[in-house]
Design a protein that fits this description.
With about 300 residues, the chain is an alpha/beta fold. It has helices spanning about 1-40, 40-45, 50-65, 65-75; strands spanning about 85-90, 105-110, 115-125, 140-145, 155-170, 170-185, 190, 190-195, 195-200, 215-220, 225-230, 235-250, 255-265, 270, 280-285, 285-295, 300. It has one domain.
C-alpha cells in the first residue's frame, strides 16, 4: 500500500507540473501571436479580409509615406501556399519575383513535373475594390502554353487530369486542346458554342519518378491568374491541375494549348448578360477528343459578375 500511495503522490505532482508547462506554452504562443500582429499592421489588416493592394493603401495613408509599409510587406513571408501574389517557378513555394503594384498570381511551369497544382476559393480581376488588370492584359484568367512568336518555339501544358469547376466568368474559351476524355457537364452560360472535333488523342498521365510535391493554395484576391509554360520549346507538366470556385470580373477566361488525359469542365457559370447570340462559353473545333461526354449544359440569361 505504501508503494501505491507513493506512486499516487508522484503522479499527482507530475500531472500538476505538466499542466503548468502546457499552460505556460499556450500563454507564450498567445503572446507571441499578439506581438506579431501589433508589430505587423499589414498582417492584421489581411486577417480582416482586405485585399493586399487596399491594405497597402490604408497603411500609406496612416503613416504618410512608403518606407514603413515597404519594410513591413517585405518582412511578411510570401508563399504560394499562403495565397501571396507573385511569380512562382513551379514547384517552388516562394515567389521568384513580386511587385507590390502588380497583384497577379502567376505560375510558370518548366522542366520539372509537378504532382498537383490546386487553386481554389479565389477572387480575380476587377471583382474587388482597387483591383485592375495588369497593363496590356485583357484576360483575367489564362491557363496554357504559348504560341510560336519571334524567337519563341510554341509550348503546351501536359496534364494528366484537368479539372475546372465552379468558375464564374463573363466568357470562357477553350482552344487548341488534345483530350483523351473530354467531360463537359452541368454548365450554365449566356450563350454557348460547343464544337470539339473527334480524333485520337492518347491517354495521358504525368510521372517523372522523383517529381515535385503538390502546390496548393486556397483563398485570395488577385488582379490576374496566369498558369503558363513560358520557356521556349519546353512543355510544362502537371499530373493533376485543379481550378475550383474562382470568381472573376473584368475580362474573359482562356484555356488553351493543353495536352491532357482527362478534362473535366463542370458546374461553371459563364455570361456577360449580352444574350444567347453572343457566345460566352466556347469550345472551339481546335479542341480534339477521343471520348466526349456532353451532359446537361444549358443556356440561361446570366448577368455580368
Amino acid at each position: 500500500m505504501t508503494m501505491i500511495r507513493l506512486y499516487g503522490a508522484v503522479r499527482a505532482k507530475r500531472d500538476w507540473l505538466l499542466a503548468k508547462i502546457e499552460y505556460l506554452q499556450a500563454e507564450s504562443a498567445r503572446w507571441r501571436m499578439l506581438g506579431t500582429l501589433i508589430l505587423s499592421p499589414y498582417k492584421l489588416l489581411r486577417l480582416t479580409g482586405i485585399p493586399p493592394s487596399a491594405c497597402i493603401g490604408v497603411l500609406l495613408a496612416l503613416v504618410g509615406g512608403g518606407s514603413y509599409v515597404a519594410a513591413d510587406v517585405m518582412l511578411e513571408e510570401r508563399s504560394f501556399s499562403a495565397g501571396s501574389a507573385g511569380i512562382y517557378e513551379a514547384p517552388g513555394d516562394i515567389p521568384t519575383f513580386y511587385d507590390s503594384a502588380d497583384n497577379t498570381l502567376r505560375v510558370d511551369l518548366g522542366t520539372t513535373p509537378v504532382g498537383e497544382i490546386s487553386i481554389e476559393d479565389i477572387t480575380v480581376g476587377t471583382a474587388f475594390a482597387g483591383s485592375t488588370l495588369p497593363s496590356g492584359q485583357t484576360n483575367v484568367v489564362y491557363i496554357g502554353g504559348l504560341p510560336t512568336s519571334s524567337g519563341f518555339t510554341a509550348t503546351f501544358i501536359e496534364v494528366g487530369h484537368l479539372i475546372i469547376d465552379r468558375l464564374r466568368c463573363t466568357k470562357l474559351t477553350l482552344s487548341t486542346i488534345e483530350a483523351h476524355e473530354l467531360n463537359v457537364k452541368w454548365n450554365a452560360s449566356d450563350g454557348m458554342s460547343i464544337a470539339p472535333t473527334p480524333g485520337v488523342p492518347r491517354a495521358r498521365a504525368i510521372g517523372g519518378g522523383n517529381r515535385a510535391n503538390a502546390m496548393t493554395t486556397s483563398g485570395g484576391y488577385y488582379d490576374q491568374l496566369k498558369l503558363q509554360a513560358p520557356n521556349s520549346g519546353v512543355n510544362g507538366k502537371v499530373d493533376v491541375l485543379r481550378l475550383s470556385n474562382i470568381y472573376t470580373k473584368g475580362g474573359p477566361c482562356v484555356v488553351t494549348r493543353i495536352k491532357a488525359g482527362t478534362v473535366d469542365i463542370i458546374f461553371n457559370e459563364l455570361g456577360a448578360g449580352d444574350g444567347f447570340a453572343a457566345k460566352d462559353f466556347i469550345i472551339e473545333d481546335s479542341v480534339i477528343y477521343q471520348t466526349f461526354n456532353n451532359v446537361d449544359n444549358v443556356e440561361v440569361s446570366i448577368s455580368p459578375p
